[in-house]
Amino acid sequence: MKNWYSVINKKTENILSSIKTHAFITELINGTLPNDVFVFYINQDALYLSEYKKILAAVGTKCSNDDDTQFFLDSATGIIYVENALHQQFLKNEKLTEETSPSCELYISYLSRLTHTCSLEEALAAVLPCFTIYKQIGDYILSKQDNNSNNPYKDWINTYSGEDFEKSVKKAIAITNKYAESASPNVLEKMNKAFIKASKLEWLFWDSAYNKEKWKI
Ligand SMILES: Cc1ncc(CO)c(N)n1
């Protein structure tokens, strides 16, 4: 199938718009998101990213094309820098937890399971929303900023609406589309499921941060 991403992107428009209208995002846009909620989110995101980078490296080693492998290994390395920057800026002087929230754990575990026990095509489809949704949400938030300099979260906003991230998102889409081109209908169906599930988990991640989700026991 040609241009698989544009088809699945359309199919998941409802998930993207649910993220755009989520209180976490609307309050991030107008700068009223409570600091403790943002800190909870960044703390969980740091825990998420430290596993996600290993997942990207694993996806990279599954690719047979050298350029594709390099891309995922570079993305994994890039995440280490992002993590450190976010840590230093938003988490200094904060009390942090090492315990992943249930939704964070679920997202990491889902990606890890697909990467290690399913086909490369499914793994590629599962990790893609982390790129594409953050790009779309980053651009959306930036488009709603009249005076970005007053927003306490502007550095976070600029990270995901920037050009470097855009290049990387385009490349991730191109690689996944290339594999989809020669995939069977059965594999394409599995790729769709993985992309949809991971997109829902993106929504859940914001929602769980907004509610400062705890383990019930
Ligand atoms: C949960 C989540 N998904 C995607 C990204 C973008 O890398 C992120 N930082 N966190």
How much of the sequence is in beta strands?
under 5%
Radius of gyration: 17 Å
Average pLDDT figure = 95
Strand and helix order: HHHHHHHHHH
Number of domains: 1
CATH-scheme architecture: Up-down Bundle
Give a list of the ligands: 4-amino-5-hydroxymethyl-2-methylpyrimidine
What would you give as the CATH superfamily?
Heme oxygenase-like
Shape: globular
Major sheet attributes: none
State the CATH class: Mainly Alpha
CATH fold naming:
Heme Oxygenase, Chain A
Cα(first) to Cα(last) distance is: 46 Å
* Structural class by SSE content: mainly alpha
Catalytic activity: thiamine + H2O = 5-(2-hydroxyethyl)-4-methylthiazole + 4-amino-5-hydroxymethyl-2-methylpyrimidine + H(+); 4-amino-5-aminomethyl-2-methylpyrimidine + H2O = 4-amino-5-hydroxymethyl-2-methylpyrimidine + NH4(+)
Function: Catalyzes an amino-pyrimidine hydrolysis reaction at the C5' of the pyrimidine moiety of thiamine compounds, a reaction that is part of a thiamine salvage pathway.
Protein name: Aminopyrimidine aminohydrolase
InterPro entries: Haem_Oase-like_multi-hlx (IPR016084), Thiaminase-2/PQQC (IPR004305), Thiaminase_II (IPR027574), Thiamine_Salvage_TenA (IPR050967)
